[in-house]
Inverse folding.
C-alpha cells in the first residue's frame, strides 16, 4: 500500500506507564476509507490505543503517524489542528453536563468554524434529524437515556466531519434495540469515501456491518489481524477462545 | 533535641511544600498565557456565551445577598459612629467615615468575599466534577483549549461582576446607612451627599477599579487552579475547601497591599 493511502500508522508502539494497560510493540496501518475493529479482553492494551492515537498519552517507544506526520512531534498548534481532524467518541461519552444536547453537538463548530450561528444550527439539525435526537435537543446530559447520550456524543464527534473517527466501546451497556439508530448512522458514515473508522470494543460481532478489518489484542500485542471474512472463519485459538468466552485456550482469565 | 529537629523538619517541609504549590500555581498561570496563542483559531462567540452565563450567576444572582450585607454593614458603621462619636458636628465627618470604611475597605472586601463564597467555590466544584466526568478531556479531544475555554470567560465575568457589585454595595451602604442614622441623629440629605462627595477622591475610584480587576482575576484563577487538581472524586471536597481558604487568605493580603500602596 502506498504511504499516501495510509491515514494512520503505528510503528512498534510501546507503552509502559501506569495510566493505561501496556503495549509491547504494536504495528498496524489504517488506510483512507478503511474501517477497523480492534477487540480483545480487558487489560489487553485495547483501551490504550485510542488515548495514544489522540495524543492523550505518549508512547515510551515507537511512532504514531497521522497522514504521514509523526504526532509525537506535533507542537501546540499542530495538535490543535490534528484533534480537529480527529473525531473521538469516548467510552464514557464526555458530554458537557451544563450544556443541552444541541449545545453539546454544536460546540466544536461554535468554537472552530467560521460558520454563522444559524449555519451551525443547520448543520447540527441535520445530525439531530439523522440520529433521531429531535425530542431531546434541549435536555441536559443528566436527563438523557443511555442511547440518547451515545447518539448525542456521536453527533458531536461527527460535526466537524473528521477524516478519522475513533469509537471507543460505544455499544457496551447499550440497549440492543435503541442502539440500532447509532449503528445505522455509523454504517452510513463508514461507507463514505475517505472517512476512516477505528472502533475498540469487547463485542466485535456487533460491528460486523461496518467493519472491513478486525484486529485482536492480547497482553499488549496483536494476536490476530484479518478481513471480516477471515475473522468470521478463522481458527486462530485466541479469537476462538474469545468468541466462545471459554476459560480453555491460550488466554489467561483474570 | 530530636523533637526540635522533627518540628524544624516539619516546618521546612511545610515551607517547601508551599513553595512547590506556588510554583505549580504559576505554572498554571503560565499555561493560561500560553493558551492565548490559540485565540486566533477560536470563535469568540463560544467564550461569550460562557462569560454571559457566569456574569449572571456571579453578578446578578448575588445582588440580593450583596444588598442585605451592604445595608447591615452600612447601618453598623453609622450606628457605631453615632454612638461613639460626639453628635455635635457629626454631619461633617459622617461622609468621610463612610468613604474610608465602606468605599475603600469594607465594600470591595465584603463583595469579594461574597463572590468567592458563592462563585469561587462553585467554579472549583464545577471544574473538579467536569474533570472527573472526563468532560475536560473531551474538550481537549475536540481541539478546544480547556484552559482558555474555562478560565478566561470566568475571569472576564468575575471582573465585570465584582466591579458592578462593589458600586452597588457602596451606594446601598451609603444610603442604607443614612436612613438608619436618621433614627438617632438628623443629617439633612444635601449635607450628607455633599460631605460624601467631598470625601471621595479620584484615588478612591481608581482603587475600586484596581481592586475589582485584582479580585476578579484572583478569585477565578485560584479556584480554577484547585478545580483542576483533584485526581479522584474523593479529593474534590479537599480541593474545594482549599480553594476557598487560599482565596480568602490571598484576598486579605492583596487588600492590605493595595491599601498600603495607595494610602501610605
Amino acid at each position: 500500500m502506498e504511504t499516501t493511502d495510509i491515514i494512520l500508522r503505528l510503528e512498534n508502539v510501546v507503552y509502559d506507564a501506569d495510566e493505561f494497560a501496556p503495549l509491547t510493540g504494536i504495528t498496524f496501518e489504517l488506510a483512507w476509507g478503511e474501517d477497523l475493529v480492534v477487540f480483545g479482553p480487558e487489560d489487553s492494551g485495547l483501551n490504550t490505543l485510542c488515548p495514544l492515537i489522540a495524543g492523550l498519552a505518549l508512547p515510551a517507544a515507537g511512532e504514531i503517524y497521522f497522514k504521514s506526520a509523526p504526532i509525537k512531534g506535533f507542537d501546540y498548534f499542530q495538535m490543535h489542528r490534528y484533534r480537529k481532524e480527529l473525531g473521538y467518541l469516548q467510552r464514557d461519552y464526555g458530554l458537557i453536563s451544563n450544556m443541552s444536547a444541541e449545545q453539546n453537538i454544536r460546540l466544536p463548530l461554535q468554537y472552530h468554524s467560521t460558520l454563522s450561528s444559524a449555519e451551525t444550527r443547520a448543520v447540527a439539525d441535520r445530525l439531530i434529524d439523522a440520529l433521531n435526537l429531535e425530542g431531546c435537543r434541549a435536555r441536559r446530559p443528566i436527563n438523557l437515556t443511555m442511547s440518547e447520550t451515545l447518539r448525542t456524543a456521536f453527533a458531536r464527534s461527527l460535526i466537524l466531519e473528521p477524516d478519522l473517527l475513533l469509537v471507543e466501546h460505544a455499544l457496551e451497556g447499550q440497549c440492543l434495540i435503541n442502539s440500532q439508530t447509532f449503528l445505522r448512522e455509523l454504517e452510513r458514515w463508514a461507507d463514505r469515501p475517505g472517512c476512516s473508522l477505528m472502533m475498540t470494543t469487547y463485542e466485535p460481532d456487533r460491528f460486523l456491518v461496518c467493519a472491513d478489518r478486525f484486529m485482536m489484542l492480547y497482553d499488549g500485542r496483536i494476536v490476530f489481524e484479518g478481513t471480516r471474512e477471515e475473522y468470521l472463519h478463522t481458527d486462530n485459538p485466541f479469537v476462538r477462545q474469545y468468541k466462545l468466552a471459554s476459560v480453555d485456550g491460550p488466554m489467561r482469565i483474570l | 533535641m530530636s523533637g526540635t529537629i522533627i518540628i524544624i523538619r516539619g516546618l521546612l517541609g511545610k515551607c517547601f511544600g508551599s513553595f512547590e504549590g506556588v510554583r505549580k500555581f504559576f505554572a498554571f498561570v503560565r499555561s493560561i498565557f500560553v493558551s492565548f496563542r490559540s485565540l486566533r483559531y477560536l470563535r469568540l462567540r463560544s467564550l461569550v456565551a460562557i462569560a454571559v452565563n457566569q456574569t449572571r450567576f456571579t453578578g446578578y444572582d448575588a445582588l440580593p445577598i450583596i444588598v442585605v450585607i451592604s445595608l447591615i454593614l452600612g447601618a453598623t458603621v453609622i450606628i457605631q459612629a453615632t454612638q461613639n462619636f460626639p453628635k455635635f458636628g457629626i454631619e461633617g465627618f459622617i461622609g468621610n467615615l463612610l468613604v474610608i470604611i465602606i468605599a475603600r475597605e469594607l465594600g470591595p472586601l465584603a463583595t469579594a468575599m461574597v463572590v468567592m463564597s458563592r462563585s469561587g467555590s462553585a467554579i472549583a466544584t464545577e471544574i473538579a466534577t467536569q474533570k472527573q466526568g472526563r468532560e475536560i478531556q473531551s474538550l481537549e479531544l475536540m481541539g478546544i483549549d480547556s484552559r482558555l475555554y474555562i478560565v478566561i470567560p470566568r475571569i472576564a465575568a468575575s471582573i465585570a461582576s465584582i466591579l458592578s457589585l462593589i458600586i452597588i454595595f457602596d451606594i446601598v451602604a451609603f444610603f442604607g446607612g443614612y436612613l438608619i442614622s436618621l433614627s438617632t441623629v438628623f443629617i439633612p440629605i444635601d449635607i450628607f451627599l455633599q460631605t460624601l462627595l467631598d470625601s471621595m477622591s479620584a484615588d478612591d475610584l481608581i482603587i475600586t477599579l484596581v481592586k475589582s480587576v485584582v479580585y476578579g482575576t484572583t478569585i477565578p484563577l485560584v479556584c480554577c487552579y484547585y478545580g483542576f487538581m483533584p485526581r479522584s472524586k474523593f479529593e474534590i471536597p479537599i480541593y474545594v475547601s482549599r480553594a476557598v481558604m487560599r482565596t480568602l487568605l490571598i484576598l486579605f493580603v492583596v487588600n492590605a497591599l493595595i491599601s498600603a500602596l495607595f494610602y501610605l
The radius of gyration of chain B is 22 Å. The interface with chain A takes residues 34, 37-38, 41-43, 45-46, 49, 126, 129-130, 133-135, 137-145, 149 of chain B (CB under 8 Å). The mean pLDDT of chain B is 86.
